[in-house]
Amino acid sequence: MIYPVNIKNSSDLLAITQKIQTDPRAFAYLAPKSNILHFYGEHVDYRAAAFLKQELLARGGDTIVTKHVIDGKSDFSDVLIMATPTQLKSLLEKLKSMDCWGLKSLREELSQAFTNINKNNWNVGEKLKLDNDTKLMAIINLTPDSFHEASRFNENNILDTAEKFLSQGASILDIGAESTRPGFEPVSVNTELERLIPALKILRKKFPDAIISVDTYKSEAANIAISEGADIINDISGFEFDDKMPELISRLGVPYVLSHFQKEPCENILSSMIKYFSGKLQILDNLGVKRENLILDPGLGFGKTSEDNFEIIKNLESLKVFGLPILVGHSRKRFTGKNLFATVALSGILYGRVNILRVHDVEENARAVEMAKCLRNVSV
Description:
By secondary structure, this protein is of the alpha/beta class. The protein has helices at 10-20, 27-30, 46-58, 85-95, 103-116, 158-168, 189-206, 219-227, 245-252, 269-286, 306-314, 340-350, 362-376, and strands at residues 2-4, 37-45, 62-64, 76-83, 122-124, 128-130, 135-141, 170-176, 211-215, 232-235, 256-259, 294-297, 327-328, 356-359. α8 (219-227) links the parallel β9 and β10 (232-235). The protein is elongated and about 70 Å long.
């Protein structure tokens, strides 16, 4: 896979050069080139890697390769492509005549990645329009055991809660009837529906124009929820728990949040996540699911260490390789200390980088997002 990486300073660049095992003496020369587009490629044929480096050097860019590419002691190399948009377009034009050494597939992936990172407008389903102005998804839990006690609601207070969240700036209401906190105990689909459907009916009647998402990984519950007026299916499992979910999404043609889910930490979270989404999207493509109905969620906290979570947050732009909107659920997660202030701080940092933030505390996060928006529009 070819995917963009977020390099903000020389320390970020140094870390990647060390990972690729480039010649350490090259860093002083490469550092000034860090303020441009960066695309990371894995397991590239050493001849293709050498070709990329030669062609980009001729255009004023560069490609970081492993130190043994030149002497042929390494058959493959990870690569970091460093180029301005103009240099990249010129390289892609050159690559049209090169199909050897895996350059054809590399060209196609690089071209797609370059196109996708510039996409910033989506119409998801009939109601949801997304752009760089990050929206808030309000969490409404209909469970007695949600990890954040203050987010637990029921039929008696859900209308007041929803009205408050919408007035505070929430664009989406996300209702869930089963806790998915670490170590959660699954509930039956009947129990989930007994909690979910009455609340959903009340919300839909009171707020006919509101966008309502249902947090469920069960296809049966999702199907009934959509028939009762839900707009979006938010599946934290990436259909790992229910293999009937993809067919349902295809048949209903409704927006679907595809989440990265893993049970245990892995060695390289970013690479693993890119490969995971690539495989999942291929399954959905094969079933005829429309890409415009999909939203990606990196699944912060699910089988990930704190270091993994921060690595994902730092490199969220890598997910733009798929050209889909991004949702992040960071609110009061364990890696934030379940802390409101840490959550709000992250919301400000994430504004403009993701399309939807899923939060418990709408008013506080809305203020952080609004401040970030103001700062982004100020010339310094």
